[in-house]
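In the design runs reported in the main text, the only information available to the sequence generator was the tokenized backbone. The following block is the verbatim input for one such run; it is reproduced so that readers can re-run the procedure and compare outputs position by position.
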């Protein structure tokens, strides 16, 4: 079956995103959002008016679409009208909406240990251990190469992480030994965690399925994903007293405010803070309660 040819307008938008080195997933998402807007409009999106865009955002709100999805659509439409069509006047009324700031799910150290022990196979155990032991995103774990391991400096090189930034993270002796055991078992040549076809790395989807399987085998009731291991890494470091600015560098966060999120879930840190009530010296407990 022949593929439907890409319209010149869509190709121009794709070219604009390619020139700015947008990742493939972002390009696909932006195109999808503009296509959804065109379907709502019932005609080519380059004929839209500011009123059409206002109606589209209102329609998304009325359908109770999540804040994250609305903001993604707004970002795509802003790019399309600002860059591809060079009509910034049309999107001036598009607004992002506030997203709920939820505290991340964090595993205890005992739960992490049970999860790693339940991992289905040495390859998955090594990959999950990297995610927790170095605080990597799932995309960074699957992109690791054998050459990224520096056993002399005891570091892992993370190449082109989020924001296209390289960084180094610590490599613990226990993690190094586990990675060596994995290498001796499978002898990976290029990718540290190759896929079924060793030319390509293991996919993020495969690894996410594996962590869900490990979670079920470990009997953990919490919602667990690969990012949960990264959250747990940061929270446990904070509870150990590691400076939050160091954790920011290890995680590859551009803003300290992003890392500060973990202060909300660092239970040991919160518990160790002395309440100002304790400094008043009141003998509250021994006083009789009012009638």
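Verbatim output:
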């Amino acid at each position: 079956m022949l593929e439907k040819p890409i319209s010149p307008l869509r190709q121009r938008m794709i070219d604009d995103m390619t020139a700015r080195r947008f990742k493939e997933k972002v390009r696909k998402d932006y195109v999808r959002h503009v296509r959804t807007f065109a379907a709502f409009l019932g005609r080519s999106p380059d004929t839209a008016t500011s009123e059409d865009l206002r109606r589209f955002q209102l329609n998304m709100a009325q359908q109770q679409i999540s804040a994250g999805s609305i903001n993604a659509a707004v970002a795509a439409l802003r790019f399309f009208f600002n860059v591809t069509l060079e009509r910034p006047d049309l999107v001036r009324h598009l607004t992002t909406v506030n997203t709920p700031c939820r505290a991340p799910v964090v595993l205890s150290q005992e739960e992490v240990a049970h999860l790693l022990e339940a991992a289905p196979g040495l390859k998955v155990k090594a990959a999950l251990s990297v995610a927790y032991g170095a605080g990597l995103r799932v995309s960074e774990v699957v992109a690791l190469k054998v050459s990224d391991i520096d056993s002399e400096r005891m570091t892992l090189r993370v190449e082109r992480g989020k924001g296209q930034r390289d960084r180094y993270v610590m490599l613990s002796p226990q993690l190094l030994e586990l990675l060596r055991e994995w290498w001796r078992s499978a002898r990976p040549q290029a990718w540290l965690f190759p896929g079924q076809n060793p030319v390509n790395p293991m996919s993020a989807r495969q690894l996410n399925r594996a962590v869900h399987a490990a979670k079920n085998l470990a009997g953990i009731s919490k919602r667990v994903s690969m990012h949960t291991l990264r959250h747990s890494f940061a929270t446990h470091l904070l509870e150990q007293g590691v400076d939050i600015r160091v954790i920011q560098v290890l995680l590859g966060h551009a803003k300290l405010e992003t890392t500060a999120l973990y202060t909300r879930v660092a239970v040991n840190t919160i518990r160790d803070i002395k309440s100002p009530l304790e400094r008043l010296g009141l003998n509250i407990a021994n006083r009789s309660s009012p009638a």
